[in-house]
Amino acid sequence: MRFDIVTVLPELLVSPLNHSILKRAQERGILQVFVHDLREYGLGRHRQVDDYPFGGGAGMVLRPEPLAACIRHLQGERVYDEVIYLTPDGKTLDQKLCNRLSLNENLLLLCGHYKGIDERIRQKFVTLEISIGDYVLSGGELAAAVLVDAVSRLLPGVLNDETSALFDSFQDGLLAPPVYTRPAEWEGMAVPEVLLSGHAKRISEWQHEQSLERTRLRRPDLYARWQESENPNI
Ligand code: 6GU
């Protein structure tokens, strides 16, 4: 799977995408991430990419011409399944949307900065608008990094059996159960007996009960949905 990310702040994206699981996925050739500096498509000697908003108000808006030039250049090289604009007024990213996006081959991500991008770019090119939650970030870059991470870890071969995404919180519509490691007793606190029993069936039954109880207490909204459909993420 390939992501192309358009941004005025490429540095903000390089580090989060080049460590640990995402680094390994890229080394294995399962994942490709290319970050494109919008300024390379900027106007004039100063490579201008933004301007004041018509109608006034604080903050700058990304101009349409550099974005269009960059998008058209990239679209000339491959067909994108979606052109995604990261924006707080988009559809909220959840596990179900991550699952759906992970089935794509090529995604083009547009990061706004300052006040956002000219509305006409959204009308002309954008096929999907995504927010990562109900709070405001300074730009779409960290949201793009979140999206790439959440989607990439679902690709076949990125995680191994032990870390399989099948056991994630949310993947079955429930929160994950508590986890423990050595030592079996620490500062007077013991690991639940069943986890030391070696009895696979009893362990997975306990984990499922814990998942249900944790979800019921912490996320009654998810719990209600789970009861209705068993797996709301498919
Ligand atoms: Cl995608 N962008 C910005 N700027 N803020 C956000 C967001 C995106 N998602 C939540 N807040």
Write a short abstract of this structure.
The chain has helices spanning 11-14, 20-27, 64-75, 95-101, 119-124, 141-152, 200-218, 220-229, and strands spanning 2-7, 32-37, 50-51, 61-62, 82-92, 106-111, 128-131, 185-186, 189-190. The protein has 234 residues and is α/β, with parallel strands linked by helices.
Small-molecule binders here are:
6-chloroguanine
Strand content: 15-25%
H and E string: EHHEEEHEHEHEHEEHH
* Extended strand count: 9
**Mean pLDDT score:** 95
Helix content: 25-40%
Low-confidence residue ranges: none
Task: Note the gap between the termini.
Answer: 20 Å
Inertia-based shape: elongated
Query: What would you report as the Rg, rounded to the nearest angstrom?
Result: 22 Å
Decide which structural class fits the backbone. Answer: alpha/beta
Order of strands, main sheet, comes to 2-1-6-5-7
How many distinct helices? 8
Please give the largest β-sheet. 5 strands, parallel
